[in-house]
Design a protein that fits this description.
Blueprint lengths: L4 E9 L12 E8 L1 E6 L2 E6 L2 E5 L5 E4 L4 E9 L9 H7 L1 H4 L4 E3 L5 H16 L6 H26 L6 H13 L6 H7 L4 H12 L3 H19 L4 H7 L5 H12 L3 H11 L26
Helix pairs in contact: 3-4, 3-11, 8-10
Length: about 300
């Protein structure tokens, strides 16, 4: 590898590495859409959209065709790229590469956070003349590695806590009806739960409050439409449940950390998404949200 940091995007169908290989740098594989099988040393992982695989240095690995159109990004970096970190900090950053389980599966409320980091990395990496390019890519990579480390730890801890059956029903309902005007009290009543108990249960089992969840579902869909359709921003706002374009723009920026037009420009610069792409999406960490008692 000529540089200490690289990022590459690709899409295709039935594509697989022609042979097993290994290299002296770290690799992070993120799947936007489709499915793959990924062999690392003596284990094969099933990788679906919204999942990351971590391959450490000098491990023999190979992707295997999953039989569907897939879109992915691969991030490579060397020890030199993160050599300012030492001891516990370095151990934490590289913990995902050292784990017995190398895959991180992101739910629908986490994927956009990682995807936005990846798109920002690509945007920065593609402009070789930009001041502070390497430093900015490093800060984005650190955010991704920290998130993955925490996610792996949380996943291991949460494995002993089954999803509450009522909250599972609520999530299914919200996923199908997020474009409607929903309130926490209204949904709680629909499922015969007191608003106070509903709020506590929802937060406990999802990690998000109700209003935050609905907004992120909407913005996730808006990002998908920005990637896959030629529709105008104001049209997309209405399609995902916002009657006020200013409200939509504000929520989009809170969640995606950029405006809808900035997001569309960043997606276009990646060069892999088209209007018929079957891309995946999710959502990032929370910002400020409105009262859960107001219609969203």
């Amino acid at each position: 590898m000529d540089e200490d940091f690289q990022i590459h995007f690709a899409k295709g169908e039935n594509f697989a590495m022609r042979k097993f290989h290994y290299h002296d740098h770290y690799e992070i594989y993120y799947l936007f859409a489709g499915e793959r099988y990924y062999y690392i040393e003596n284990r094969t992982y099933y990788v679906q959209k919204g999942s990351m695989i971590f391959i450490k240095k000098n491990e023999i690995h190979k992707t295997i065709a999953g039989g569907k159109l897939h879109e992915r990004a691969v991030v490579y970096f060397t020890d030199r790229f993160v050599d300012q970190y030492h001891g516990q900090h370095m151990d934490m950053l590289l913990s995902s590469f050292m784990s017995a389980n190398r895959i991180v599966e992101l739910n629908n409320l986490e994927q956009n956070y990682i995807e936005n980091l990846i798109f920002q990395m690509n945007n920065e990496y593609s402009d070789r003349g930009r001041q502070g390019r390497s430093l900015y890519c490093e800060t984005l990579l650190v955010q991704l590695l920290l998130f993955a480390s925490r996610k792996m730890k949380e996943t291991a801890e949460a494995a002993h806590i089954p999803m509450h059956p009522k909250i599972s029903e609520v999530i299914e309902y919200c996923n199908a009806n997020f474009v409607k005007s929903l309130t926490m009290e209204g949904v709680a009543a629909r499922f015969f739960i007191s608003p106070f108990h509903f709020s506590r249960l929802f937060k406990r089992y999802t990690g998000f409050n109700f209003t935050q969840y609905i907004h992120t579902l909407r913005i996730r869909e808006a990002q998908k439409l920005l990637r896959e359709t030629p529709h105008k921003v104001i049209e997309i706002a209405g399609q995902v449940g916002y009657v006020n374009i200013a409200h939509f723009n504000r929520k989009f920026k809170q969640i995606a950390m950029m405006s809808p037009m900035e997001y569309k420009k960043m997606i276009k610069s990646s060069g892999i998404f088209t209007t018929d792409a079957a891309a995946a999406s999710g959502t990032p960490s929370p910002a400020a949200y409105e009262s859960p008692h107001r219609p969203i």
